[in-house]
Design a protein that fits this description.
Blueprint: H1 2-21, E1 36-39, E2 47-48, E3 52-60, E4 65-72, E5 80-84, E6 89-94, E7 103-113, E8 118-127
Parallel strand pairs: 2-8
Antiparallel strand pairs: 1-3, 3-6, 4-5, 4-7, 7-8
Length: about 130
């Protein structure tokens, strides 16, 4: 019985020493800071003709940018989305029915950082011969 108690006491002592020597658990700080994003061209109010145009965005974040999703409302027909997973953050919007389109097209760019924080920028561009 004495040997059993001694063995248990030794094992318990080793566990206590191990726990005392272990470093405290460090909690990682959670990144809640959203990225920054800005649509570069086209400038707000700029007008376009034809069936396509290129939109670029500048997106930055300390943790890095995972992706940028671009949306356009296609002149009121529907919302189109385009995903870009690498720099330069840009997309070419195209639509076959744009030859006769004369309206504002709204463009949204949403940046996702590597911690799923998001930020957005929106502009409107005139699509057609000249704005009213």
């Amino acid at each position: 019985m004495k040997d059993c108690c001694c063995k248990s006491l030794i094992i318990l002592s080793v566990h206590i020493i191990f726990l005392m020597c272990k470093e405290p658990i460090k909690h990682e700080e959670v990144d809640t800071t959203p990225p920054k994003i800005e649509i570069i061209p086209p400038s707000p109010g700029q007008n376009f003709n034809g069936t396509s145009f290129v939109v670029k965005a500048k997106a930055t974040d300390e943790s890095g940018i995972f992706k940028v999703i671009f949306y356009d409302d296609d002149g009121g027909y529907s919302w189109n989305s385009y995903v870009d997973y690498s720099e330069p953050w840009e997309v070419t919007f195209t639509a076959s029915h744009r030859e006769n389109l004369t309206s504002y097209v709204y463009i949204i760019a949403i940046a996702y950082d590597n911690h799923d924080n998001i930020a957005a920028d929106t502009i409107g561009v005139w699509y057609g011969p000249s704005p009213p």
